[in-house]
């Protein structure tokens, strides 16, 4: 797919999403960006829509406004998520529902609503390198919700072929958390074959690849410096 002048919906523009948005704008892509609380600043060419993506009516409003503004929708990059520790001692049904709703339910709702408006296009979802084989301790609902994203990717790809291609990116150590100690950092680097943090631009490059590729669907692409094989 030639992406210049295509219209895409991008959800979740904090941190890595900011870099993805800028990469798309630089390529001449028209984007509609959703946000919950703080409106991002990406320039006047962007359509900004405040929405709770766990609410089907608000999701429908996002898609409707995007199509009305640009005249068409050609794809979705769904990055919106949460990442909160939920230790076993305090783990609750509320934790489960929050993770499943914000991560898995929102992905289904947005992908289904966007796909129903596209004759052809691309959908990209975001999982996590660890969840299928090395799930993080104290993040049980998060791990399950992100695992569901991988299953959703494959099911959507089969349902929507041949005209809509659906893939998933599973990031590894991309951005070092601000609260990481030197010991934490050393452990990550030791466990990553490429021995470095990837940087947000690696996700942006992967997004651009999947948008432009026309013979890739139903795949989970690990962008993790080899962490998943360590």
Notes on the protein architecture:
By secondary structure, the protein is of the alpha/beta class. The protein has a single domain, classed as Rossmann fold (3-Layer(aba) Sandwich). Helix content is 40%, strand content 16%. It is built from 6 helices and 7 strands. The chain has a 7-stranded parallel beta sheet, with helices on both faces. α3 links the parallel β4 (75-78) and β5 (121-126). α3 runs parallel beside α4. The longest helix has 23 residues, at 93-115. The relative contact order is 0.15. Keywords: Oxidoreductase. InterPro entries: NAD(P)-bd_dom_sf (IPR036291), SDR_fam (IPR002347). This is Short-chain dehydrogenase. GO terms for molecular function: oxidoreductase activity.
In short:
By secondary structure, the chain is of the alpha/beta class.
Series of H and E elements = EHEEHEHEHEHHE
> Which ranges are low-confidence, i.e. pLDDT below 50, for 5 or more consecutive residues?
none
As laid out across the biggest beta sheet, the strand order is 3-2-1-4-5-6-7
How does the helix and strand content classify structurally?
A: alpha/beta
% residues in beta strands: 15-25%
Number of helices: 6
Instruction: Report how far the terminal alpha carbons are from each other.
Output: 34 Å
Major sheet: 7 strands, parallel
**CATH architecture heading:** 3-Layer(aba) Sandwich
Give the domain tally: 1
Any idea what the radius of gyration is? 17 Å
Can you give the helix content as a percent range? 40-55%
Average pLDDT score: 97
CATH class: Alpha Beta
Backbone shape: globular
Corresponding CATH superfamily:
NAD(P)-binding Rossmann-like Domain
Report the count of strand segments. 7
CATH topology: Rossmann fold
Protein name: Short-chain dehydrogenase
Family: Belongs to the short-chain dehydrogenases/reductases (SDR) family.
InterPro entries: NAD(P)-bd_dom_sf (IPR036291), SDR_fam (IPR002347)
Keywords: Oxidoreductase
